[in-house]
Amino acid sequence: MAGGGAGKYHAKDFDWEDLREEVEKDPSKGYHVAAPSSSGYRGDLLPSSLPHASEAWRSFHKRHSTGRFFKERRYLLKEFPELAAQGLSCCALEVGCGNGSTALPILRAGEGIVIYACDCSPDALEVAKATVENADDIPRKDRFRAFLLDFSLCGFPRWLFCDSCQASSIRSPTNCSSDVKGDLYTTDHSPYLEGRCCIGGVDFVTLVFTLSAVPFQRMPFTLAECISVLKPGGLLLFRDYGLYDMTMLRFPPEQRAGFREYTRSDGTLSYFFSLDIVRRLFCGAGFIELELEYCCVRSENRRNGKIMRRVWVHGKFQKPR
């Protein structure tokens, strides 16, 4: 895989197993490795020490209201080429949209794409909407529909995919192309349904550096909600922090909130995923695994010359037809 942008992007600069061996042999990094229990996966189910993670993220976005903290994720269309299919007419749900850095390249991919985007922070939503409005190269700005939701605690609104329509879609599967056009939406971010009870589900859900911010014990709920609003055959596109990423290894022991779960100094939460945990979480929610791998990127800090080894998890999952 490769990403876009001005420079080249590499996803296999080093072997993750070599990094794992190095970390697990280093006694100074033992607290990153040791599980709280000997029961494997169950160790990840320990309660988080940060029950109000969403409030910390709301404070974060209020402090970074200029939107400059996150760069546009231009690599997404190469990582997930389904979003850039020529002539695609579809509906996507972006979970945890932040300042809009993920929505921008998707909206540019084609005029037939409509994005619903949610976040727990009203400040983040305002920045995201302004970012889209100020982008000169995005036609039809009304294709971006942002709404406030703490998705780690609350279910998605039923106007995305109501229970009766979900049941009907299982009996009569639809393809992955939405018949909901851009002019069916009103400016208050609620759909104008013309007698319909919901928009009929979405073709794509994006979870890009979002699930790691949710307390681990709430992740199954979030994924269950994601699969519930996808059409049969729809795709969930996943990218997040991987196990033994550089940022994980920088956390001191006192900031450990659980197994592979840490709190930053500002109170925000970060979890670091292994492929095994991702597979269990997503397959446990009913998804079919299509792609799942580590992305290992080596870069150099130009200021101090230090080599940084970044690890992310790339995944693509499908709702059964």
TrEMBL record:
Key words of the record: Methyltransferase, Transferase
GO biological process, alphabetically ordered? methylation
Might you give the EC number(s) for this enzyme? 2.1.1.-
Pfam families per the UniProt record, alphabetical: Methyltransf_23
CDD domains in UniProt:
AdoMet_MTases
Keyword Ligase present in the record's keywords: the answer is no
Q: Which InterPro entries match?
A: METTL2/6/8-like, SAM-dependent_MTases_sf
GO molecular-function term, one example from the UniProt record: RNA methyltransferase activity
First-level EC class: transferase
**Protein family according to the UniProt entry:** Belongs to the methyltransferase superfamily. METL family.
Q: What does this protein do?
A: S-adenosyl-L-methionine-dependent methyltransferase.
Name-wise, this protein is tRNA N(3)-methylcytidine methyltransferase
